[in-house]
Amino acid sequence: MSSTVLDPKLTGTYALDASHSRLGFSARHAMVTKVRGQFKEYEGSGFLDFDDPAKSTASVTVQVASVDTGNEQRDGHLSTNDFFDAPTYPTITFTSTGAAKVDDENFTLTGDLTIKDVTKSVTIDFEFTGTSVDPFNNTRVGFEGKTVVNRKDWGINFNAALETGGVLVSDKVTLEFDISAIRQDS
């Protein structure tokens, strides 16, 4: 049974369940459509304080080479220095620096996002989607979130001019998070 009630008894340490979560992104391609992708390998943990959300913390490490857009050639290009430079910078990290409750279902998580050895602060809007106890007696919580960033802020500058005007890849990228986390200290 899922619930969206913020119960202080849920306060504790949680680990990201990568097999039931998604860390994704979308960017406009050729000025006409969006290309969507995700990272398939990552790990994360955090402390969720349902009594005082400002005390919550989170950290995530993403393996850059696990990028998947459904197109092997594009994924290979994203791993080069034109984009992520996976051989030189094999991970993307996020470490929270603050959390705030907006209302009973919405929160913001601010933190340091490091890509290609460049660290910038980002704020992610999250919706608490519920909690449940799964068939294996694990307490789970769910969140969905997103934020828009400018990839050039992290030195990801590759582009190509289009014959009809505009560019091949938008500077703005939407980061998307579908999170399932399992309580570790219950």
UniProtKB/TrEMBL annotation:
One Pfam short name: YceI
Domain of life, per lineage: Bacteria
Domain Lipid/polyisoprenoid-binding YceI-like residue range list: 13-182
InterPro entries linked: Lipid/polyisoprenoid-bd_YceI, TTHA0802/YceI-like_sf
Family per similarity comment: Belongs to the UPF0312 family.
Name of the protein in its database record: Polyisoprenoid-binding protein YceI
Species assigned in the record: Phytomonospora endophytica
